[in-house]
Amino acid sequence: MSQLEVLRDTTGMQGFDYPTLEEIVTLWRSYQATGGLQPEEAWDAIAASLALDMAFSGHVRAKFSEH
Q1: Which of 6, 43, 50, 59 is 20 to 30 A from 23 in CA distance terms?
Q2: Residues in the chain with pLDDT values less than 50
Q3: What is the pLDDT, as a whole number, of residue 60?
Q4: Whole-angstrom Cα distance, residue 50 to residue 20?
Q5: Model pTM score
Q6: What span, in angstroms and rounded, lies between the C-alpha atoms of 60 and 67?
Q7: Residues 6+ away with beta carbon under 8 Å from 50
């Protein structure tokens, strides 16, 4: 399985799992190569997706409902 396929495979994941540095770098390079993004644009896309994942993960919602 390629590194990109590993990033896309979400079976068994519940909520937000923290990506490794290697996964982030692989995704960043992929965005530049396949998406034609500049390095800064690729990083902005990754940062935005991480923020959205954290904001809408099941763990965060569960935390808010407990209060």
Answers
A1: 59
A2: 15, 60-67
A3: 47
A4: 12
A5: 0.56
A6: 12
A7: 19
Q: Write out the two tokens for 39.
A: 């390095």
Provide the token pair at 31.
Answer: 């965005």
> Which positions ≥6 away from 22 have C-beta within 8 Å?
3
Distance CA 38, CA 40 (A): 6
From CA 43, how far away is CA 36, in angstroms rounded? 13
Q: What is the DSSP string of 6-63?
A: HHH--TT--S--PPPHHHHHHHHHHHHHHH---HHHHHHHHHHHHHHHHHHSHHHHHH
